[in-house]
Amino acid sequence: MQFFCYIYDKTSVYPKTYDRLLITVHREFINNGDNSFFSIIIEYNKSSEISTSNAFKSENKKRIDYRGVKGLPIGNLISQHLANFYLGKFDHWIKEIMKVKHYIRYMDDFILLSNSQCELKKLLDNIIIFLDNQLLLKLKENIQLNKVKHGIPFLGYRVFSEKILLSPQSRKRFIEKYRLYEAKCLHGTWSIDEMVRHMMPLIEFTKKADAHGLRTNVINQFGVWS
């Protein structure tokens, strides 16, 4: 593949997913007489700005604006599963209807690969229409269309055919968090065990990339434990 199209963070997926997901779940489960799952979700979203039950009283199957309902709380354990369930409709459309062979998605980040730049542009137009009409989502403007040889930005990395590097943002975040975590330990806010619990995932993230030199330099420059 020569070209990639990287789409980062469909606009406000978490804030806008929950109400729409409820509609999807409602039509799929409630109509079949299974109220248990829907009831759990209703209970889970008691903090909605408007009554979710009222949103389902309408039998109108046309497009309804549910933007008044609060979305999925970011960081909640169930939020990722619910958002993934909702975006699964997009996955099926991409693979089964559009027949896209080279497609990768992680939550609201996804990549399309092709040997034709024109093909990617045309597909992007269709994606914008589908997301707007079917999921009431819009894409952010920071869409990247470039050659694969320049590296594909994805999930905090820049992926090349022969190597994986940390993105500039990830490098900066690693340094800042490393210094913050050690400072909290040195100032007595955290115990050593607490610092280690936070440090481990931070360091493990960098191990997926060719970042040994960065880790060594940061530890030598800022670290008191090496």
Please describe what this structure looks like.
By secondary structure, the chain is α+β, with helices and mostly antiparallel strands. It is built from 8 helices and 7 strands. The chain has helices spanning 13-29, 36-44, 52-55, 77-97, 117-134, 168-186, 192-207, 212-222, and strands at 3-7, 103-106, 109-114, 144-147, 152-154, 157-159, 164-166. The two termini are 42 Å apart.
Q: Give the mean pLDDT.
A: 78
Report the principal-axis shape: flat
Q: Which radius of gyration do the C-alpha atoms yield?
A: 22 Å
> Would you count the extended β strands for me?
7
% residues in beta strands: 5-15%
Low-confidence stretches: 46-70
Helical stretch count?
8
Listing every helix as H and every strand as E from the N terminus to the C terminus, the arrangement reads EHHHHEEHEEEEHHH
Distance between the termini: 42 Å
Strand order of the largest sheet: 2-3-1-4
The class by helix and strand makeup works out as: alpha+beta
Largest sheet: 4 strands, antiparallel
List keywords for this structure.
226 residues, 7 strands, alpha+beta
In brief:
The protein is an alpha+beta fold.
Secondary structure blueprint with pairings:
Elements (H helix, E strand, L loop, with lengths): L2 E5 L5 H17 L6 H9 L7 H4 L21 H21 L5 E4 L2 E6 L2 H18 L9 E4 L4 E3 L2 E3 L4 E3 L1 H19 L5 H16 L4 H11 L4
